[in-house]
Amino acid sequence: MRWKYMLWAGLAIASTTAATAAPGDFEGDVLDELNALRADPRGYARVVAQTRERYDGDILRGRYDDEIDIQTREGVAALDEAVAALRVARPVATLKHGEILARAAADHVAAQSRSGEVGHRSRGRGPGERVVARGGGRYVGEVITYGHSDPVTVIEQLLVDDGVPGRGHRFAVLEARYRYAGAACGRHSVHRTMCVIMLSETADGSPPPPPKRPAARPN
C-alpha cells in the first residue's frame, strides 16, 4: 500500500543580509535534468505534460513503486499551468557544479535525514549560513523537494510548485542570473527521500561581480 503525503517544497533566498567534491550519479542526473530544462524550457514542457496521466483527482501517483503518492492542493490545474508557462519561457544559461554549494546542501540532507524535519533550517543554520560554514558566501538560493526518488520528478515538483501562490521554486530554477548549482539527495525519515539544490551566481556563493558599466562615449 502506498503512503500519501502532502506536497512540500521549500524555497529560500539568502542575499546581502542574509559531502562530496563532485556530484554522485543521482545528484548528477538531477543537475542534468535541471540543465535540460534551462536549455530548452519549451521542449521540457512535453516531459512535464506526460505527468498528467498520473493524476487521480487531487492525488499524484508516484512514477515508480518506491515513490510516494502525493496529496496535492491544486490537482492537475497546477500542472497545466506549469506546462503553459514552460511553452513560452526562454532558454537560460546552464549551470556548472559548485563544490561548496554541494557540500552545504549535503550538510542539510545529513541533518534532516535523521531529524525528519523539513524546511531550510537545520542545526540552527539557514542556506547562507551553511555555505559560509563551508567557506563560501551568503549569496545563494535553495530549493528542496521531498518524496521523490527520480530526477525527473524532482524537477517536476519544483516546476509545478503545487500550493505555492507565487511559484517561487519555478522562478528560481529558471532564474537567468544563476550560473552554478550544487545538489545533494538522500533518505528522509518521514518522506523517504529529499533533494536539496543550492543555486548561486558564483561557484561558492561569494558576492557576484558588479555589473559592467557601458563605456563612456567620446564627446
From TrEMBL:
Keyword Signal assigned: yes
Signal peptide, first to last residue: 1-21
Record flagged with keyword Signal: yes
InterPro entries: CAP_dom, CAP_sf
Residue intervals of the SCP domain: 82-193
Organism domain of life: Bacteria
Keywords: Signal
PANTHER family: SCP DOMAIN-CONTAINING PROTEIN
Protein name (Swiss-Prot/TrEMBL): SCP domain-containing protein
